[in-house]
Input
Amino acid sequence: MSATAVAVTDQRAELASQGRAGRVRPWVVVILFALVLAAGTALRLWKLGTSPAWQWDEAVYWRVAVNVRHGMLSEHPLLGVAWTPFLYQPPFYALLLAGWFDLTGATIFHARVLGVISIALVYAAAFRLLWKIHGPRIALFAMVPVIFDGWLTYIQRVSYIENVLLLIVVVGLLLYQRALERPSWHRFALAGAALACAGVFKQTGAYGIFAVLLCWLIVRREHKGHLVLLGVAFAVIVAYIVAMHRMYDLPGRPWFTQQSLVQLRRVLGLQHSGGTLGSPSALLHLLAAQYRYFVPSVLVGLSALVLAARRLLQCYRARNWVPAQPNALLFSWMAAGVVIFGFSSLKFPQYFALILIPAYCFLWTEVARWDCSGARKAATAALAVVASVGCFLLTVPTYEYNTLHLAQQYAKRHIPKDAVVVTEQSIGDLIGQPWCTVQYATPCLTTASYAITWSTYLQSSFTQGRAAFHELMRGAVKVKSFSGPVGTATIWKLEGA
Amino acid sequence: MKRAVVSLAVAGVLASACGHPLIPAAELKPNPVVTKARLPLLSAPLAKYVVRKPVLGVDLYSPRNYTLAQTDAFGTRTLSYIKNVLHAKAVGIVWDYFSPSRTTNVVRATKQGTLTVADVMRLTKIAKQLGLRVEYRPLIFIPSHPKNPWEGLLNPPNPAKFFGNYYNVLRPYIKAAQNLHISEFVVATEMHMLNTSRLWKPFFRKVGLTYHGVVSYAAFMRDYWPPKGHLLPVRLYGMDMYRALPLAANAPQWRVTRAWERQFATTPAAVLMRTALDEEAIAARAGAYGDPPSLGTPGRLDQDIQVRWFTAACKTVVKYHMRAVYFFKVNLADNPVEPSKALSVFEGRKGAVAISACAKLFG
Output
C-alpha cells in the first residue's frame, strides 16, 4: 500500500470513527451552521450603511457600475484625456454590480449588501468543502471562528470584488474536491472551468489554480484528471483573453492589452501603485496605527502560519508529503495564497481575505483534529470568537467617520457644478464636477479652481501628484478638511480661481 | 473526448464574438491618422532657413542688479568659465522685469532687481571679446505670487496696454542689441496666457524696426508641441524644455535620450530645425526627471541625473538638427571655483562636464 493510500485510508477511518462517536446528526449540524451563518451575516449587515467609512475602491466600482447602467464601461471621464474604458479589472464585477443596482438601487450601501450576500454564500460553500474533507462536526467547529473573525467581518462589510471572487474560488475548490473523491474527467474539467472563471473574474483569483497544482503535488494521484483540469482552465482563460482582445482592443487603442499589462506590471513591482503595502514594517505600522483592533485576527493568522510551517517541516523530515495529505487542499490553498500574495507587489488590505479564509479553515480543522478534549478545543475556538467579535464591535463606531462621503457632499454643496477639480481617482469618481487627476493635471492647469487632496498612512496626493499638480497647488488655500481613520480629504481653493 | 473538443470549439466561437459592448459609439470611430508631421498652429508661413551646426549656449542669469564695476568683475569671471570650462559658443544674457500682479498691464524694471542696460552692454562686450555669440532673453516675474511668480500666468486686462508698457521697458535694451550686433533677441519667455494674442505680430515688428538681428520668442513647452501648440509669428522658434519624463532615477543614458527624442518626435522637421532650446535645466536630485521645473526642491544629490538629462538634450538637438541649446543657468555673481551646494547648480559637478561634452558632439 502506498503512502498516499495509507493517508487516505486513515482519513476515511477517522471520518468513520467520528461518525460513530458523534451523536449529532448531520441535519442538526446543518441547522446549527445555518444559525451561525445567519448570526454572522446579521453582524455584517448591522450598521452597514454607516460603518465602515467608504473605502477607496468602493467609489471606483460604484462609479463604473453606474456608468455601465448607462451603457459605458468607464469611470468618471477625465478632462483633456482620451476616453478609455475601465479594464484594469475584468468587467464582470461591474456588470454584476450594475445588474444588482438595477434591482436594488445604485448606492454604495447596496453594493455592500451584495458583498455580504456573496460572503454568506462563500461560507456556505466553504462549510460544504470542509464537510466533504473532514466531516460535518469538524466543518461546523472550524467555520464558527472563521465566520466571526473580526478582520473578515470588518473587511467583508466593504463592497470589494474579492467578496464575489472568493465565492467563485471556493466553488471551484469544492468542485475540485468532488472530482478528487469521485474522479471523472468531466468533474475535473468543471473544476478547471470554475477555477479559471475565478482568474477571469479578477486576475488574482488565478491563485486557486496554483492551489490545485500544489494539492496535486501533495496527493499525487489522478494525474489525467489534473491535466484535464489544467487544460480546461487554460482554454477558458485563453478564450477570455481572445474575446476581450477582440472586443476591447481597437486599432490604435489597445485598451484591454494596455490596462492588463499595467496590472501585470503592478503585480511584478515594475510599476508603483498608490495605497499598497511596501514592506513588512509598513504592515506592522499600519496594524498598529489603523488596524490595531484586529490583533486577535493577526494572532490567529500567525498561528495558522506556524501550524502550516510545522506541517511543512514534518514533510521535510519525512521526505514526502504524507503529513500534509490529510488536509492537502486547505494546506495548498493557504500556501498558494501566502506565496503568491507574498511575492506580489500589490498588497491591499482586502487581499488578506484571500489568504485568511484558507488559513483559518486550515488552522481550525487542524485544531479540531488535535488529540485533546473537546471542551478544550471548544474553549479555544470560543475564546477566538469572543475576542474577535469584541474587537469588531469596537471598530463599528471607530470607523464611522466617512471622509469620502463628506468630501463628496461638500463638493456637491459648495463647489460649483462646472468648476474644474483636481483630485485623486476615487474622489473624482464620487464628485459630479469635471476633473483631472493629480498625476496628470496638465489639462486643468489653467482652468482648475479647486483641488481635493487625499492622504493616508500609505499614500498622499502630494507624493502622487506630478509637476502640474504642484504648480497648481502653489498658493492654494485650504478651505475644508475631513479627517477620519481611513484618511484625510482636504479641499483647496486654487490661486487665481 | 469529443465533448471536450466541442467545448473548446464553443469557447472558440465565443472568443470570436464581435462587437464592442459598453463602449460609446462615438469612441468606436477610428482615430484620426496621426502622421509624424502634424504641424502646430503656425501664425505665419515658415521662413526660409538653412540648417547649420547647433550652437551650445549657457544662460548667464542675473536675478538682481549690480554696479557696473561688480558686473564687470562678475561677468569676466563667469563668462570666462562659460567659454573656457563649459566650452560654450554662446551666452544668453537673462535678466528680470516685474509685474505687480497677474492681472495688470504694468511691467517695469526695478532698481534692485533689473540689470541695467549699461550692465547688459558691459556683459555683451566681455562675451564678444571672448568670442561668444550673445542672445538677450528678459524674463518677467510676478513677485506678489512668491510661490509661483511665473510669467506664464500673466493675463493683463488690456493686452495692448501691456505690450506698450513692455516695449517701453525693453526699448533701451533693443537699441543696445542693435548697437552691439548681438545674434538674437528672445523678446519674451513662456507667456502662456498671452500665447494666442494677435498683438505679438505688431510687437515683433516694432522690435524689428530697431533691432535687425533675429527676433524670437521662447515658448512654454505646451504652447510649442503639436497638435495643441501655437507658434508665434517669428522667423525662428524657441522653446523651454521642462517636460517631466517617466524615468527611473537610475535610467540608463539611452533611455533618457529616447524619452527626450520622443518628446519632439511628433514635431515636424521643418519646425524643429528652426527651433532653439532656449532654456533647459534640471536639478542634480534623485527623482528630478519627474519634476524638472522644480529646481529648488530639496532631495538627495544625484549628479548623474544632470549628466544624462544634459547629454540627452544635446543628442536630441543633434538628431533633429535644432538650432541651439541654452543650459539654464550660471548666475552672474557665482564663483565657479567655489560653487553653491544647491542641487540646481551644475558648476563644479559632473553636469558641467556633460555640457562641455556637448561641444564635441556639436562639432
Q: What stands out?
A: Residues 1-10 of chain A have pLDDT under 50 and may be disordered. The interface with chain B takes residues 68, 71-73, 83, 85, 91, 185-186, 189, 228, 232, 235-236, 238-240, 242-243, 246-248, 250-253, 442, 445-446, 466-467, 470-471, 474-475, 495-496 of chain A (CB under 8 Å). DSSP finds 21 helices and seven strands in chain A. The first helix of chain A runs from residue 3 to 21.
